[in-house]
Amino acid sequence: MAYNILKGKVQFVNSNSGSIESMVDDYSNQTIAGQKTFSQPTTITNLTSTNVTSASGSFGNLTISSSVHHTPLLILDKAETSSSFIEFRKQGTKYAEINTNEYETLFIKTSAVSYPIFFRQAGNTPLKFQDSEVTFQSFPVNISQSLAVTGATFVSTLTATSNISASAFYGAGTGLTGIAANSLTLGESMQNVGGSLVAKLSSSSGLESTSLGLRVNPSLGFEKTSPANADTFLIADSAVGNKTKKITYQNLSTAITDSVTTLSTNGNAGAIQIKNGAVLLGPNELNFNTSTNTLTVTGNITGSTKIVSPSIHGTNFFGGGQNLTGVSVLNYTSSLTNFNVLAAHSLLGINSSGSAVTASFAVANSYQAGQTFTFKDIEGSGSINHIVIATSGGQKIDGNSLVKIKANYGAVSIATDGVTNFYIVSTS
């Protein structure tokens, strides 16, 4: 087999068939008409074409243009699912790809860690994706239809460092803050007070707003002195978990009176009623006069505690009178030896036949004011063995610290002011 070696300038002219080697040189700009099929990997540094079909290729700068309207500019078609349509490489290493799956979902995969996908506009980045976050920045992003953020698998949270605006927001507003009352549509029962949302309460509604919430306060309502049968009251129905219900005045009063047993009164006007079994008695022996505020009792009064009244009248009084005041105490006590004068003493008989006897007072305020004590020589020995009446605490009897009975069968009566002094009221 012979070979021809061509040197120098070789040009193929007017060839319209045969192999590519017969029609193309590698140093001048040429236009190739018709469809060309590259069956092997082909490397083209700069290719401009209206229609390119290639099984595999590498292009340094590829421009594809078409003047046919409403037709795809670039079609990537593979017969298998879940495989790459486009791969992006640097120095032979793949770092990103675009593919689809059997559900027609478009996947953009990248090995980048920080912000793997950017949409760049005029040197700015208005939209970028990172992990489960979608970040809008630099320029406003306008969404003409709707933006849905659903599920933790995709984007679970939508955040912004400035404002998110829309003609309407839907869904739960939990977590929203800084919403002024003047930006809300208020009903008839709410009002805007300095930017705060406040319940509107009339001065006579019977309701008040407190730190614990709204509560019923009857003192804020209008007063009605004569309730009508149709008037209603609020009650907590214990039969259904204290649910708030209403009841009319007529039904409430009926329920109260039905649960109360009433008895008919008896006796004359002013008769005090005494329950006797299932009836009331009004005995005439027990009567109270409301004009004079006088209680009249025909019969006896007994009591285990005090009876207090400005004036108590009776034919006779019985029982111990030791707690009575202003009553002269009359009793007799005798003594052969020295003794102390008690508040219960009155008439004291003293026998000094054996020796002198001294009767000693306590301080004056130990006795009632005006209380009088009588000391008597009952054996006629006073001239020999004197009877001495002495004070204590430096107090005096008519200016003296003691008084003596020196006459046989002599006697002396001494009274006290109940404070600090004693006085001789009689002698014999």
What features would you describe in this structure?
It is a single chain. This protein is mainly β and 428 residues long. Helix content is 2%, strand content 32%. The protein is built from one helix and 28 strands. A six-stranded mixed sheet has the order 19-21-23-27-28-25, with no helix packed on it. It has a four-stranded mixed sheet with strand order 20-22-24-26, with no helix packed on it. A hairpin with a 2-residue loop joins strand 11 (207-210) and strand 12. The relative contact order is 0.03.
Q: Would you spell out the secondary-structure blueprint of this structure?
A:
Layout: E1 42-49, E2 57-64, E3 84-90, E4 93-100, E5 106-110, E6 117-121, E7 124-130, E8 133-136, E9 190-193, E10 196-199, E11 207-210, E12 213-216, E13 232-237, E14 243-248, H1 249-258, E15 274-276, E16 279-281, E17 286-289, E18 294-297, E19 332-335, E20 339-340, E21 347-350, E22 357-360, E23 372-377, E24 387-390, E25 396-397, E26 402-405, E27 411-416, E28 421-427
Parallel strand pairs: 1-2, 19-21, 20-22, 21-23, 22-24, 25-28
Antiparallel strand pairs: 3-4, 4-5, 6-7, 7-8, 9-10, 11-12, 13-14, 15-16, 17-18, 23-27, 24-26, 27-28
Helical content stands at under 10%
Overall average pLDDT: 78
Name the beta content range. Answer: 25-35%
What shape does the CA trace take?
elongated
Work out the helix count.
Answer: 1
Give the strand line-up of the largest sheet.
Answer: 19-21-23-27-28-25
